[in-house]
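Workshop exercise sheet. Pairs work together: one partner reads the sequence aloud, the other fills in the structure field after running the prediction. Swap roles for the next sheet.
Pair: D.N. / O.F.
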Amino acid sequence: MEHRRSALGTLVALTIARIAFGYQVQTVASLGPELVRAFHMGFTLLGTLVGLYMLPGVVSAIPAGVLARRLGDRRVVTAGLALMTIGSVLSALGGGPAGIGAGRILSGAGAVALTVLQGKIVAERYSGKSFTLAMGLMVGAFPVGIGIAQLTQAPLAHAFAWPAAFLAGAAISAVALLVFATTWTGAAHPPGMRLLVWPTRRECVLVLVSGLIWTSYNSGFANFLAYMPSWLAAHGHPRWVGDVVLPLATWSNLPSIMLGSALATRFGPTPVFVFGTLMGVVAVGGVGLVDAPLLWGALFGVFASIQGGLIVEIGTLSARPENRAVGMGLFYTTYYVGGATIPALCGRAADYMGDPSGAFLAAAGISILALPFYWLHRRRARII
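Structure field:
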């Protein structure tokens, strides 16, 4: 019973941390129209500021996994949540794009620890269907954080100026840090000694391919949310449309991900993955082709994320328990390379077309690559 309470407390702490992660990632996008006006920036710079949150993971995801093997999960995650809090405060005090970017790099460095270790920590406490559902809950918390950001950040900026939105992100990560520190206990069955053991060639291949799946999926998800506020403003939609579309596109994600995890336990992951991927491509690409934001927001929110929890589960289980910390470092290094560069590439497409629609078309083209990467993973898992 004590172990169950400990596992639940840890899951709650990580879920709050994921909400903080989503809230902080979305801040620049939610404030996009205001930041563009205030600092006279183009969409390429805006996309760069969005992507800077992911940049630290390019070089620190693997070291985070290694440090967890040496120092323990608790210390690394605690340090990560502290950096998320400090970085958001720095962005609030930065006074312009350079300061905002510096704070996002620091916050992003902290978020690396959370993202690299979350699956490993949950896998040590849950198994079977419980693991699938727990992963769905935790992954689904990220869009909840984005949804909260969309509801609160613009009003905070209007009432208290744009730094208030960054300070709110700092407060949420501070709460996550407090809950984590007060609920953490070690796993009932830790995965062995904390030695630096590199995953096998087989595990590295499977983890890297699953990372490409996650990167492709997130190219559609992240850029739909990042460029939607600017797209709505550029196309003259009243504010109430954004107040409907953005929450619809995010708040529906948690039940959608949980539903996808439940359906996968009954029918298998492949049909759920294929359906969700195709719906995401249609919803993201549709924004760039047909001016119907309510339709695309509903389609995106209800169907485009049902496979989200399954992808992280695939990545987590691609390495043995004793190698998961480093393995997930590889997984998220792949993801962070894409997360740091793809928003700017989509922004360049928007600048090239002279309209944010270009960002959606570029994101849709990248997100469909999740399908061949998924089939490659299945094939390599069978023959390696």
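Discussion prompt: The CA atoms of residues 46 and 265 lie 40 Å apart. What would you look at next?
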